[in-house]
């Protein structure tokens, strides 16, 4: 996969089920087929409501109604345990998947240790080195910045990074920009992103998404991006995957869902699609104080994002 002349890798998941250490199911009979060169959004609710939650509606603030904001905020608070993080970590080869359930470019990502697969998730965000008293050029050089000077400089410009920053004094949003530059500096063939843009401001996120889209257009690569923030995403994805309680509820090309959903005065068409899905998820989950579902939210587990608590359903 390191050969830049080879085609972009496709991603196939077939009949994948996965259990946590306590025996509860994290994923159940997951089947998806993501074409080479695709840009796929994984959609599913989160258990907290960060400030960007209002951007679920993907509409200018002045055009939103109080009722729509209330619905969006409640959905992000309650739609729980979708399974996105578990699936992304399996795709990245971070956890062992059952035999013959996952292939990337025709290979098993765990057994064959594929090159060119980049995963940026909770471990990356919590890495202690990016909070120490260290300068930006040193950090970028430590991950190959001098080997890819043009790419390094492009990422610094796109993410609006000040090379005079020191990491122990920057804001969370500025730190996230540096982390993204570090993670994306070496050219990748498959990029797996798990809620990694949550601290970015609107302009930086827009520039970052434009960069990712351009990457898939000029070189062979494939992207899977789990997010609940839909700003500037209306025309970004080629495919959508709707996950709920460890199951894939809907999957397909973006055009498939556009044809079934109208665009309202308050919402982009993508916003309407996702809002409809999350309403259905909320109804399926039932009252918060009702019986617990088997699906897990990583924030609720011990350890860094709950990682290390899963085991394969073999």
Mean pLDDT: 78
| Radius of gyration (Å) | 19 Å
Provide the CATH architecture of one domain. 3-Layer(aba) Sandwich
Strand content: 15-25%
From the N-terminal CA to the C-terminal CA, the straight-line distance is: 28 Å
Number of helices: 9
Helix content: 25-40%
> Could you name the CATH topology of one domain?
Rossmann fold
Structural class: alpha/beta
Low-confidence stretches: 47-80, 299-314
Q: CATH superfamily of one domain, please?
A: P-loop containing nucleotide triphosphate hydrolases
Reading the helices and strands in chain order gives EEEHHEEHHHHEHEEEHHE
Query: What does the largest sheet look like?
Result: 6 strands, mixed
Cross-sheet strand order for the largest sheet? 5-6-7-3-8-9
Number of DSSP E strands: 10
Protein name: ABC transporter domain-containing protein
Organism: Aspergillus ochraceoroseus
InterPro entries: ABC_transporter-like_ATP-bd (IPR003439), P-loop_NTPase (IPR027417)
Pfam families: ABC_tran
Overview of this protein structure:
By secondary structure, the chain is α/β, with parallel strands linked by helices. It has a domain at 11-116 and 222-312: P-loop containing nucleotide triphosphate hydrolases (Rossmann fold, 3-Layer(aba) Sandwich), CATH 3.40.50.300. 30% of the residues lie in helices and 18% in strands. It has helices at residues 66-78, 84-91, 122-125, 136-142, 149-158, 172-184, 202-218, 254-258, 269-285, and strands at 11-20, 25-34, 39-43, 102-104, 117-120, 190-194, 222-226, 239-244, 247-253, 310-312. The strands form two sheets. A six-stranded mixed sheet has the order 5-6-7-3-8-9, with helices on both faces. Strand 6 (190-194), helix 7 and strand 7 (222-226) form a beta-alpha-beta unit. The longest helix is centred in the last third of the chain and has 17 residues, at 202-218. It starts with 10 loop residues before the first strand and ends with a strand.
């Amino acid at each position: 996969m390191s050969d830049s002349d080879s085609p972009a890798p496709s991603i196939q998941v077939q009949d994948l089920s996965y259990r946590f250490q306590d025996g509860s199911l994290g994923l159940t009979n997951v089947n998806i087929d993501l074409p080479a060169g695709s840009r796929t959004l994984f959609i599913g609710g989160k258990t907290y409501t960060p400030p960007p939650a209002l951007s679920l509606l993907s509409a200018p603030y002045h055009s939103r109604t109080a009722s729509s904001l209330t619905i969006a905020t409640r959905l992000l608070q309650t739609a729980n345990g979708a399974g996105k993080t578990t699936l992304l970590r399996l795709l990245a080869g971070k956890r062992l998947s059952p035999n013959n359930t996952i292939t990337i470019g025709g290979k098993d990502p765990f057994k064959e240790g594929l090159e060119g697969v980049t995963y940026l998730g909770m471990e990356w965000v919590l890495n202690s080195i990016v909070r120490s008293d260290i300068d930006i050029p040193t950090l970028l050089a430590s991950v190959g910045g001098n080997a890819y000077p043009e790419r390094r400089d492009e990422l610094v410009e796109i993410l609006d990074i000040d090379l005079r920053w020191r990491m122990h004094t920057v804001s969370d949003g500025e730190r996230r920009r540096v982390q993204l530059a570090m993670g994306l500096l070496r050219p990748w063939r498959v990029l797996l992103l798990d809620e990694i843009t949550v601290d970015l401001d609107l302009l930086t996120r827009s520039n970052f998404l434009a960069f990712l889209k351009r990457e898939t257009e000029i070189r062979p690569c494939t992207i899977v991006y789990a997010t609940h923030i839909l700003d500037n995403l209306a025309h970004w994805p080629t495919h959508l995957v709707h996950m709920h309680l460890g199951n894939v509820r809907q999957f397909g090309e973006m055009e498939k869902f556009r044809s079934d959903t109208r665009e309202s005065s308050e919402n982009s068409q993508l916003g309407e699609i996702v809002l409809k899905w999350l309403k259905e998820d909320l109804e399926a989950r039932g009252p918060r104080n009702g019986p617990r579902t088997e699906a897990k939210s990583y924030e609720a587990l011990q350890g860094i994002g709950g990682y290390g608590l899963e085991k394969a359903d073999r």
